[in-house]
Amino acid sequence: xxxxxxxDSSAALSSVVKGHVDLFCLDIPVTIDDHTYVEGxxxxxxxxxxxxxxxxxxxxTSQPSLAEFNNLLMTLQSEGYTxxxxxxxxxxxxxxxxxxxxLKDEHHNLVIAIPDTKITSAPLGYMVETVLTLAxxxxxxxxxxxxxxxxxxxxxxxILVDDLNHLVKGGRLSNGSxxxxxxxxIKPILYFNNEGVIEVFEKVRTEKKAIKRLVEILRETTSxxxxxxxxxxxxxxxxxxxxxQQLKESGFDQDLxxxxxxxxxxxxxxxxxxxxxxxxxxxxx
Length: 285
Description:
The chain is α/β, with parallel strands linked by helices. It contains ten helices and 13 strands.
């Protein structure tokens, strides 16, 4: 088996997998003021936040290119790959996963699996790392898929945003929820539900109380198992570091790290968002 993993640029990839010979990434463009950008090519995160702050219209994202994915599959086949696993952002926030399913039957010499990850960002990156690690350990394709499904079912994220309007205007949260939050100064804690859709998990009156509740939810969610936990933020690194220190000093014993949201997800969450990405570890046996 020669396995390729294909993901998209919403995934926050660790240094362990960046540049891996069997990993391929589809770009998700960001449009700001009618100009199209791709993070890492013609856009940096400081410039992204500057442009978002100075433009009246919010940035927009597009889906990855289905044609690019199709061409990549043809290239992979020509390079001797026999199996492909596609890991893309949740079907609950993008239509790409549904569209990608049509390609599975178009490449008869490849065994292709494209499960719905129901997540994005760092948890998606951990799924990519899991697949590449299991393949390197010599696991069969079916075993890798089973382990991946196990990880997907146990993965979630809880999010606290500074401004709900980004999610509302992007169609990722209902107008009613945003209106309630704005009128009553409520800081709702959002999460990815079992279908990979962002919903309100709880409504809390202040940010201080919301952060405290966020930590409680994290402890409850990770109490039974071994997890990779990531504090993910959009341009509020000091707040993320404070949260990290608070957790470490309180004896939180899961693997914990900090990453920033890329431009694709920051487009929809806005500046000031902070989240916990929670991904169960899976073992070969």
